[in-house]
Design a protein that fits this description.
Elements (H helix, E strand, L loop, with lengths): L2 E5 L2 E7 L3 E6 L5 E7 L32 E4 L6 E3 L2 E3 L11 E5 L2 E7 L6 E8 L5 E9 L6 E3 L2 E7 L5 E3 L2 E6 L13 E2 L2 E2 L2 E2 L10 E9 L3 E6 L4 E6 L7 E8 L6 E8 L6 H6 L4 E3 L4 E11 L1 H11 L1
Antiparallel strand pairs: 1-2, 2-3, 3-4, 5-13, 6-7, 8-9, 9-10, 10-11, 11-25, 12-24, 13-23, 14-20, 15-16, 15-19, 17-18, 19-22, 20-21, 21-25, 22-23
């Protein structure tokens, strides 16, 4: 079921069902580089055409090395000191080489984050009857001290003008006015802001967006292209991921044109600030967090049926 190939010096693993092809790189934090619906031929993930897939040293800058695909950020986003330890840009996981093994109908990736001491494990399986990837996670703290952390998905998608971002959030706020075309820092009822719709993808220009979405009705965040009946979505436990971040570059960030969907355990960006506000994940010594996340990549009509079932 699992096949291997090498791109440059980086090993890629692939899984295939009748409906989906998934390709990911254990050496690069398990980054997913391909998510293709085999019935429609659509590849959903955006890739930076200027970069090769390669393992970078721990502590590398993220923005200038933004490859695309789906990363996960753990245990932080912005570089900061947490409990006396300096953590690198976008955390430790995205540059960590993970171990892997075939397990049953899928594959398990695992590793230990050297600075924070958390153990990370995920098992990926493809649903047999619909275009879904099922990911079972276990994050554990084998140390004796409490560990506050941020855990976030980071799915960079191919986009076009008129596409829609879908999220059952009641409230949104600009995360940083320097990184958004919306300049007010007052919360607003999602998706209407300043007389416009924040959930519609504009054409290419020089703009960016960076929003926090919260007060979720259900644990879902997605994208769709109505004119082509295409859709991508995360389904997750909103008690684990109570926030959804939305970052998009419509040309203003290194010239990229992509939208990044980011279900997250914390808000705001700083783990220290989020912890102080009680809006941050914490594992006490010996505790573990287990949860399941599903990724859908198919038609918009198929997503609508699943979405209704999740409400």
């Amino acid at each position: 079921m699992i096949t291997e190939r090498t791109e440059g010096k980086t090993k890629l693993l692939s899984m295939r069902s009748r409906q989906l092809l998934v390709e990911f790189a254990p050496q690069v934090g398990g980054r997913m580089v391909k998510l293709q619906n085999l019935e429609t031929g659509r590849q959903f993930l955006w890739k930076n055409p200027s970069l090769d897939l390669e393992k970078l040293p721990a502590g590398s800058e993220y923005d200038s090395n933004f490859y695309g695909g789906i990363d996960e950020l753990l245990p932080n986003d912005m570089p900061e000191e947490i409990n006396g330890v300096d953590f690198p840009d976008h955390g430790e996981l995205w540059t960590l080489a993970l171990d892997w093994k075939e397990t049953g109908e899928g594959v398990t990736l695992s590793g230990r984050l050297p600075l924070c001491g958390l153990n990370y494990e995920k098992t990926l399986e493809l649903a047999p009857d619909r275009p879904e990837l099922i990911i079972r996670y276990r994050i554990s703290n084998p140390t004796a001290s409490a560990k506050p952390f941020l855990w976030k998905f980071h799915a960079a998608l191919e986009i076009d003008e008129g596409d829609e971002i879908i999220c059952p959030a009641e409230t949104a706020v600009v995360a940083d006015p320097q990184w958004s075309k919306w300049k007010s820092t007052e919360p607003f009822p999602w998706p209407a802001v300043q007389g416009q719709r924040a959930d519609r993808i504009p054409g290419r220009g020089a703009e960016v967006d960076f929003l926090y979405l919260y007060n979720l009705k259900t644990g879902c965040m997605g994208w769709r292209r109505p004119r082509e009946d295409a859709a991508f979505a995360y389904f997750f436990d909103k008690n684990v991921f109570p926030y959804c971040w939305y970052f998009a570059s419509y040309g203003g960030f290194y010239g990229h044109y992509t939208a990044v969907l980011e279900p997250c355990t914390a808000m705001p960006c700083s783990v220290r600030e989020a912890h102080a506000q009680g809006q941050c994940s914490v594992l006490e010594g010996g505790e573990a967090l287990e949860t399941t996340v599903r990724i859908y990549a198919g038609t918009g009509s198929g997503l609508e049926r699943i979405w209704k079932g999740a409400e």
